[in-house]
What does this fold into?
Amino acid sequence: MIDAPNGRRARVTAVDLFCGAGGFTAGLQRAGILMVGALDNWDPALNTYRANFDHPVVKADAARLTAAEFCEAIGVQPGEIDIVVGGPPCQGFSIQRIGPDSDDRNDLVLRFAEFVRDIRPRMFVMENVPGILGVRGRPFADRFVFFLRREGYDVRVVRVNAAEYGVPQARKRVFFYGWRAGVVPPFTFPPPILGPGEQRTVWQAIGDLPSPPEDYTPLPGDPLHRRTRLSEQNLARLRLIPPGGGFEDLPVDLRVEAHKNGAARIGHRAVYGRLHPDKPAGTITARFDSFTRGRFAHPFEDRNITLREGARLQTFDDTFRFLGTQEEIAALIGNAVPPLLAEVIGRALVGHLSSPGSDDALLFPPDGRFREQLDIFHSATP
It folds into this structure.
């Protein structure tokens, strides 16, 4: 925390590693946390982050930058930061990934752990895809937890659905979080807020937006709200797909060749799909601007959802600025931690660090039982 003039501890502080556009940062700031620095290596992310936040963001490859260099660049000393958060790249763990299991980006999860060790925060939170608990990711999850336990942190893992926290999107993610043993009392991740019948819907999130201009220009005053062009064949397909539907609603002769045998053989029922207006969206991905990639068509209009509509479904404020090409902005939005989910987590962290001893939690079992614990957790979650 930052010391106030009267000597009392005043503001909980945090840094955001692999910050992307800044969804995690935006939510933590809403929760009252003082963000003092961030790190990324992709220019569209850095440009977007700098357009929205005043604190330093460092451009560097996390695989090569040391924590000491990062702290020096943002003007802090190791041990001064309360919380380290971040979402290392998850493509290598994705269940949709095709190809060999090895991916250099997987090692960045372990780099996050090393940054935690060297920055020495009181707490940390790391976000990733559910695949980190699967075949490809499990070895890295094990090593991550064992490493930080050895460095004096108690660690927990939880799998969440963002729709249960007010995000109009059934986005399932895994959070690893921990606290310095003997310094911070055990912390409980905030429980779900909303049940199935209470969750925010697509139409609640985007229903008030006007239809974007037919000529593919942006809506005046909103550069993110414009149509993308569709081929005549895709328009013909989309006209036949009902709200909430997908390629299985198409006659076989209109399906792409790979889909003609049906989803029972290939899966991916959501591709060539429309959003259902009365349900949360599915996961907004880095390619949500094309309905050929998922259930990303407007519920009623014959078009893809716009970048603005995707940002709404991710709970970014309309005032948040995104810089880059169409494809880059879609990736920035789709890869972000939803700010509303980050805010819920941030409020719990602030409350915990401001009132030590007020919470309780079950710790991870001893190192030898971590594998058993993960197996039980993995099999018990959808």
